[in-house]
Amino acid sequence: MDCDCGGALLDGKSSYRVSKKYFSLIIDNIPAHKCTRCDKVLFDEDTVDKIQKLVNLIERDTKEIATRTMSSNLYDY
Ligand SMILES: [Zn+2]
Q1: pLDDT value at residue 74
Q2: Per-residue pLDDT tens digits for 48-73
Q3: What domains can you pick out in the chain, each with its CATH number?
Q4: How many A from CA of 68 to the centre of ligand 1?
Q5: pTM above the 0.85 mark?
Q6: pLDDT value at 28 more than 90
Q7: Environment class of residue 30 by beta-carbon count within 10 Å: exposed (0-12), middle (13-18) or buried (19+)?
Q8: Which residues surround ligand 1, an ion (CB under 5 A)?
Q9: H or E stretch covering 59
Q10: CA distances (Å), 24 to each of 41, 45, 75, in order?
Q11: Ligand 1 centroid vs 71 CA: distance in angstroms?
């Protein structure tokens, strides 16, 4: 497997950053391929697929939390 630039790809670990409207997510130590020439990091399609599913899941739940209306019933303990 080679990079678009023609450089060789080395197996390694990298982190994946996602920035969405309601949250930011950084996943560390993901197996990745790094280009020795241009430093571009490539992830396996399968890995990206899994991360994307995770992001969609978190996005749905955080949106629900972020957009929820404050309850007018405050409980005093
Ligand atoms: Zn490259």
Answers
A1: 74
A2: 999 999 999 999 999 999 998 877 77
A3: 9-66 (3.10.20.860)
A4: 44
A5: no
A6: yes
A7: middle
A8: 3, 5, 7, 35, 37-38, 40
A9: helix 45-66
A10: 20, 21, 31
A11: 52
